[in-house]
Amino acid sequence: MRTEPYTFGLPSGTFIPENYDNHIERRLTDMKGQYLDQDAYRAMLDQKDTLLYEVYEFKRPEVAGELLHGISIVHPGKVGSEYFMTKGHFHSVLETGEIYYCLQGQGVMVMETPEGEWAVEELRPGRVLYVLPRWAHRSVNTGQDEDLITFFVYPGDAGHDYGTIEQKGFRKLIVDGGDEAFSVIDNPRWGNADS
Ligand code: PAN
Ligand code: ZN
To answer: Which of 51, 54, 73, 89 to mutate to test the pocket of ligand 1 (most atoms within 8 A of CB)?
Structure first.
């Protein structure tokens, strides 16, 4: 782990940071129960365990005062009519905010609170998104053929609660909008996503 202040570049074209510490890959199998069209999910998985998104992280102590940061890359594609997306999570310390800065691509952040509020905000290059404390968040690539690339930063002691979303899903889903760029629909399986 670095013990002195540092900078890093984000090479144009890939935005894969120089000198990252950790590379995470998430595939179809990691998204079991999350996509609405389960037949399409299984058919796709029969072909290949497709890579959906990747995260490049810098290692920092997971304590208050530190800021965890890295790059998230969601690849383009759909399962049925639903776009490739991240698992999404609440932070274990619910009262934790997070900043996303979009570097490339077209997408949205789907967000909701335990109290039932929800929001969908567009991500496009040059836009900064502030995810308020208490809001679960999932990034979705609504583009045709381009990666959705964001820089993120959040407090070191935030932790991640994936279980709540794995069990319930998000209240809103992002699907192909036909003539529109995308559509936001109610998740008919909200509350029992992994069954
Ligand atoms: C991001 C996310 C990243 C991948 O760093 O972790 O975009 O999404 P999932 O963690 O939902 O798989 C972040 O929000 N960290 O807190
Ligand atoms: Zn987060």
So the answer is: 89
